[in-house]
Amino acid sequence: MVIAEDSVILREGMVELLTARGCEVVATAGDADGLLSAVADHLPEVAVVDIRMPPTHTDEGMRAAVRLRSEHPGLGVLVFSQHADTSWAARLLAGDPAGVGYLLKERVSATADFVDALRRVAAGGVVLDPVIVSRLLNNGTRPLDRLTPREREVVDLMAQGHSNRSIAGLLVISERAVEKHVASVFTKFDLPATDADNRRVKAVVTYLQEVGPRG
After folding, report:
1. What phi and psi, each to the nearest 5 degrees, are found at residue 103?
2. 6 and 78 together in one domain
3. CATH no. for residue 63?
4. CB 155 within 8 A of CB 188
5. Given Cys at both, which of 2, 11, 147, 162 links 166, Cβ 3.0 to 4.6 Å?
6. Chosen domain end from 106, 128, 150
7. What is the pLDDT of residue 147?
């Protein structure tokens, strides 16, 4: 993986922690240009990107992340920041959403959870902090009105990267019930019967795009 973080202490700390967990860090970068070059040179499975990086410390990292998604379609991108920006989250998820993550630094309490998120993103999954999902959800949109409250809970947890088994445990319902809710979400979002994993990703993206900010 490649890590892009302008704080030297945090960057080196992440390298040490992730290496100890068996992850291979092939390069690090302190700015957006360095990130783009590192990915082009090493072609990693996943890039960890902070939003605000030099020189202006506004949105250079996120702009680079969106560019990487365009130039390297197979690359997993995990945004790891203290800033919850729903407009950029929606843009990052536009198009093919596979392999995207957005986590808030202060809410990741265990290295194991972060490593798990990295592996899911590298494998093509979608991992979003509940705060990001909640802020997108609060914007509201008509298509979501098709869903029952339970279906909204299920797709919300899907957007956070939970499996059907995990959702069943969190909602204290059977896994079969979750499967029925997921199937209903597919139907209400007008997703044709294709590969199950692909439909799941599309359902999450549809959900997030619909609750995202209007331009």
Report:
1. -120, 145
2. yes
3. 3.40.50.2300
4. no
5. 162
6. 128
7. 81
Strand, coil or helix: 56: coil
- The two structure tokens encoding residue 192: 């044709």
How many Å apart are CA 190 and CA 128, to the nearest integer?
23
Q: pLDDT (tens digit, 9 = 90+) per residue, 142-172?
A: 557 678 889 889 999 998 889 999 999 999 9
Instruction: Say whether both 98 and 76 belong to one domain.
Output: yes
Helices (H), the chain: 8-20, 32-42, 60-71, 86-93, 111-122, 130-137, 149-159, 164-171, 175-188, 196-211
The residue type found at 39 is: V
The tokens of 182 are what? 């997921």
Domains: count for the chain: 2
Give the SS3 label for residue 152.
helix
Q: Which residues pair with 54 in a beta bridge?
A: none
Which tens digit of pLDDT belongs to each residue from 84-108?
Answer: 877 777 778 776 778 999 999 988 8
Are 153 and 171 in contact by the 8 Å Cβ rule? The answer is yes
**Residue 123 belongs to what domain range?**
2-128
Let me know whether 47 and 112 are in one domain. yes
Residues contacting residue 193 through CB under 8 Å, at least 6 positions apart: 186, 199
Torsion over CA of 117, 183, 130 and 22, rounded to 10 degrees? -10
How many residues are listed for the chain in this entry? 215
Look at residues 94, 128, 162 and tell me which one is the last residue of a structural domain: 128
